[in-house]
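Today's session is about reading a structure prediction critically. Students often jump straight to the picture, but the first step is always the sequence itself: look for stretches that repeat, for charged clusters, for runs of hydrophobic residues. Only then move on to the predicted structure, which in these notes is written as discrete structure tokens rather than atom positions. Here is the chain we will use throughout the hour.
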Amino acid sequence: MLLRMLLFSLVIFFFSTSALASEQADLVVVIKSKRILLLMNEGKILKVYKVALGKNPVGHKIEQGDGKTPEGIYYIVGRNANSNFYKSLKISYPNEKDYEKALKLGVNPGGGIMIHGLSKKVEYLGKYHIIEDWTEGCIAVTNEEIDEIWSMVPDGTPIYIQP
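Below is the predicted structure for this chain, in token form.
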């Protein structure tokens, strides 16, 4: 009887874990002020992650080197399995509006904004990497978390980055 219950529990655990892993996000939301990233599907929160942002996180990214994480609606437009930061998902920054603003100001808007894991130099920090914001404008999570995000967020998924 005990063996049956244990077997039943393992089967339930396996199928519930598999179902979660197979769910796909249809929206990524980043709330910069709370330092969180949410994976959503049809308005339901699938997962929540704590993140580190650009080292100068308040306000919208305007130019390369300002250390800000952009704000607005963008898209996941690619992925790099061999990133310097373990794995990365490319965000469609800068968009047309960002280019126009940078052009008016006479600055380079920059680019290469990603959701990424940790480099080999700092992967030992794990979840403690979020103690302070440290990226050049990217959104950083642990390597285990980027593996989950990688599998749940297809290219083309919108990402809404809020202040």
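Discussion point for the tutorial: The first strand starts at residue 27 and ends at 31.
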